[in-house]
Automatic annotation (TrEMBL):
Keywords: RNA-binding. Residues 1-96 form the CRM domain. Pfam families: CRS1_YhbY. Gene3D superfamilies: YhbY-like. This is Ribosome assembly RNA-binding protein YhbY. The keyword RNA-binding applies. It comes from Metabacillus fastidiosus. It comes from the Bacteria. InterPro entries: RNA-binding_CRM, RNA-binding_domain, RNA-binding_YhbY, YhbY-like_sf. The keyword RNA-binding applies.
């Protein structure tokens, strides 16, 4: 579980990132979760965009993605979700204590 200080740090780190996934009309599926897990292993911190035509509530989408990918939900802001998961092989981010 992330502490407030760590979430603030990750939000600042994520600020300049571009979303690399989009959740649209189809919603969240297994294939998307698998790809997001792989991207998290490579990058640790990613942004996901929720499109206007997505039929699910953004918080539901964020919940499904974070649980499915076993990642920490850092932030849901507007239609953007920020996820973090510590990488096993590509550790880049050092969180403050």
């Amino acid at each position: 579980m992330l502490k407030g200080k760590q979430k603030r740090y990750l939000r600042a780190e994520a600020h300049h990132l571009n979303p690399i996934f989009q959740v649209g009309k189809g919603g969240v599926n297994e294939n998307m979760i698998k790809q997001i897990s792989e991207a998290l292993e490579a990058r640790e911190l990613i942004k996901i965009n929720i499109l206007q035509n997505c039929e699910e509530d953004r918080n539901t989408v964020a919940d499904k993605l974070s649980k499915g990918a076993k990642a920490e939900l850092v932030q849901v802001i507007g239609n953007t979700i920020v996820l973090y998961k510590e990488s096993v092989e590509n550790k880049k981010i050092t969180l403050p204590k």
